[in-house]
Amino acid sequence: MTIHSLTGAISSRFYSRWLAADPARPAMAASLAGLSLGPEIFAKVLQNEMAAGMPLPRAMRRLRNLVVAVLIERDLTGRADMNEVVTTISELAEFVLRTHVAALSTELIARHGTPIGDESGRRQELIVLGMGKLGGRELNVSSDIDLIFVYPEDGETRTDSADQRSLSNHEFFTRLGKRLIKDIGDITEDGFTFRVDMALRPNGASGPLAASFGMVEEYLIVQGREWERYAWVKARALTGQAEDISALEAIVKPFVFRRYLDFGAIEAMRGMHAQIRAEVVRQETRHPERSHNVKLGRGGIREIEFLSQVFQLIRGGRDAELRDRSTRTTLRTLAAKQLLGAEEVEQLLAAYTFLRNLEHRLQYLEDGQTHTLPANEADRLTIANMMGFADTPALLTALDAWRRFVAARFDAIFADKSGQDSDEDGSQVDIQAALAHGDDPDALQASLAALGFVDPSAAAQRLLATWQSARLQSLPATSRNRVIALINSALPLIAACRDTQTVTLNRLLDFFEAIVRRAAYLALLIEYPHALKRVIRMMHSSNWAAQYLTRHPILLDELLDDRTLKAAPDWSAFSAELQRQMDAAAGDTERQMDILREMHHAQLMRLLAQDLEGDLSVERLADHLSTLADILVGATVQAAWQTIASRHRETPQFTVIAYGKLGGKELGYASDLDVIFLYDDDDQEAPAHYAKLAQRFITWMTSHTAAGILFDVDVALRPDGASGLLVTSVASFEKYQAESAWIWEHQALTRARFCAGDAAIGARFEAIRETVLRQPRDDKALRQEVMSMRQRMHAGHPNASTLFDLKHDDGGMIDIEFMVQYLILRYAAQHPELVADIGNIALLKLCGKLGLIDAALAEQVANAYRSYRKLQHQIRLQGEDKTRVEVARVEEDAAAVRQLWTRIFG
Prior knowledge:
One of its GO terms (cellular component) is cytosol. The protein is mainly alpha-helical.
């Protein structure tokens, strides 16, 4: 098919006029129609135009018209898709800007000299920031381009001849910016290259055309508004020196991306959307023919952009992968991170493609910057045909379907939930008036009683005390109203906690008082009522959970999505994501320490939620917590080693060995890590470097940062204890265990394992451990040592209460652990399977199976140990330090343990 025969099929009046204006154009278009256009072709065409004597501005306009015409043909004949169209136009805009800036800079420098920075003494260059769709490389064919002009430093131009007249850098770059706008934006006989919009610059139309970095930074800090964060998400430097671009990004990043999860962005973007919608409705009311705005209308392109960008503003400060400027790339990232469903994202991408294709066809008609369907039916039919529909009603049916889908997804995230009730049965009280009249608590008590509070007087007193506290009264009215709304929503839910109403209310109000100055957290709970329900359930179930969430409210984010909250941990994926984030923050120790804590806290919250829902057994939970600790220990060793500048090798021959609860894979939520450090490296620098690594490991683990603490670490089990070296060579460890270790140290070795680091050293440790545990022992001496150590531990934990101490009392957990340790040390020489690190319950059953103890009694004691651990876990969740219960609850279990103790030790 020739280019002439295509003109009928390609229903673009702009295209037809462009072809008809010059007999050479059909052949030129035909030569390019089979190609995907890009910068190399742009440069070649421009060179040919300028070689014919045309000035740059006119040659660039002719290039632009050619590119648009070829894209129209390729798109409407099915040879180009939407991605090619937006990418080509974006690359053309970048080519135009870079070419003109280079030419104009050369011209102005010849007249006025080279701009030099006062502080650095370096040459200064104009940085042109592409905003909006240009920044995201998603321009449409007739789009204007949103630009901001910035330069690094104030100063003056340095002249080289008397003919040059020096200017301030500000004046130099202002002149350059004005010329740039004129050269590409003025309408001439060849049209324009790109319309330019500078409204997004600091202070808008009233602000300077070009701003220094200092001006930009001051503006963003002092005056930057929420909608400008949305705009600056897409800011992309198209010209300038790399180091200056990096410096500018460092200024902009804290303004756009908050380090905390910023759910206040939802409300801000909701307000922006409402203003846009109001203007569209106003225009459609005044001009009914301007209907179906595919960009700004309900369910249009802008709503899809908002959907992706709100997640960027909320989470981009913590997740660099969410800072991409492309709407389509961001949507795919949201699916990959399970922040939106994969099927939902595919539908949104399909809707985006449909709407952008329709937008292009609206603009193909006259090369006009329009986003609404034409007023006359003939043009509407033309658009329908270009979209592949037989008639206008078919197009409108498809358009309405996509817009309804987008609008529904938009509403699911942006619908105003501040007035919604989180109580499913609709019971609600308006507590605001009652709180406002604190001198008359009777009305408040009556409301609480009506809700079902057993002790409305106590609840009213606490509510009033919280409300009248200086902390809440000093808040802005918006935040106080949010607290009122949250309390209104929470009270019916707390009333349902019949036996723990007062306790749950106190925990929740403590939590509210901790977060009231963080508007983002209040906004999150308003936006997601089901998250508030989960908070209340957790605080009802566990004081430890309440305290943990109060210390780390950033974890509220983890309560939003059932899919991630209830999913079984994928430790391989977790480890890979942790390493990716650590690598991205390489060189920033503070950030890496926070990443470790943030990811630990987030995973801990998911496990806690599953635990409180009854989805995890105590053993399964301990396995997960131990695996989580192993991964974090490994990542910490790797990162801390990179901070030792004088390290003698890239990969340390260094290993962390876990003892105690971590060694036995019985870790709890707040357990310490008992560890020792081994190395196997003959380099003379090794001892000093590995000692420094161990010290930094402890610091990384135990330091309090803005994100809290990771783990407390205990290294007392190393050879020679507190008087010994912090790190030990494998050879020295082997010799110590064979010749110098006490029996209690061999007992500890029964619950030790390789945790992280060099796997070869880990294997050597396991071999040493097996050798030590399997050595023949004198039974009498062994019994005496074990019983003596047990007596010392018992004396160190007296219990004067009438309750049974699950851990330390006779018949408790320590007795069980000591019996297992004794059985391993006594019989492993004959039964090597006893050295396996399979946990106390499995080891007891194994000893019964081997005939070392009565099998039935072994089963009873194993069940007792499981019961103790479950009770201990429940008590720890209530925040108690001592795990004690009524004797009657464990009488049978304790009797079985004491019976086995008597049979073993007499």
